[in-house]
């Protein structure tokens, strides 16, 4: 399996002062350890997937819309800030996405567990789905 985490020398420059020049680095989707230490693992990919779930739940909302730099994001995340539950998002789905954002990477779920939970959510949705046809004579 090949994982492309979107990082390349052309996209980020790290200076001796440990500051970096922002290029196409996807900082809004990056885990705390990726932003702080440039550590990229499957656990940091889980964090990013949690951000994607949040985007889906907000119909394409921009993650951390009020945070304007990766430095400000690191500061906020280090104090425990996480994005709030979107209005249209179930408690169960928000629990899943917020579990992806645990500070300790070892405490985040594995992708196999995430897939299992999402399949379970889909089974529950199918149970409550109502099929309404145009030919129905009943008033809706």
From TrEMBL:
One of its GO terms (molecular function) is transmembrane receptor protein tyrosine kinase activity. Residues 1-122 form the Protein kinase domain. PROSITE patterns: PROTEIN_KINASE_DOM. It holds the Pfam family PK_Tyr_Ser-Thr. InterPro entries: Kinase-like_dom_sf, Prot_kinase_dom, RTK, Ser-Thr/Tyr_kinase_cat_dom, Tyr_kinase_cat_dom. One of its GO terms (cellular component) is plasma membrane. It comes from the Eukaryota. Coiled coil: none annotated. One of its GO terms (biological process) is cell surface receptor protein tyrosine kinase signaling pathway. Signal peptide: none annotated. PANTHER family: TYROSINE-PROTEIN KINASE RECEPTOR, TYROSINE-PROTEIN KINASE TRANSMEMBRANE RECEPTOR ROR. This is Protein kinase domain-containing protein. It comes from Pocillopora damicornis (Cauliflower coral).
């Amino acid at each position: 399996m090949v994982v492309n985490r979107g990082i390349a020398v052309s996209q980020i420059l790290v200076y001796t002062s440990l500051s970096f020049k922002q290029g196409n680095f996807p900082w809004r989707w990056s885990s705390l350890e990726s932003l702080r230490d440039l550590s990229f693992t499957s656990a940091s990919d889980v964090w990013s997937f949690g951000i994607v779930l949040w985007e889906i739940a907000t119909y394409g909302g921009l993650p951390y819309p009020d945070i304007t730099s990766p430095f400000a994001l690191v500061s906020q995340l280090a104090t425990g800030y996480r994005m709030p539950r979107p209005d249209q998002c179930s408690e169960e789905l928000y629990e899943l996405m917020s579990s992806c954002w645990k500070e300790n990477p070892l405490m985040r779920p594995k992708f196999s567990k995430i897939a299992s939970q999402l399949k379970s959510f889909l089974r529950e949705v199918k149970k409550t789905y109502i099929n309404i046809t145009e030919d129905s004579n009943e008033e809706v």
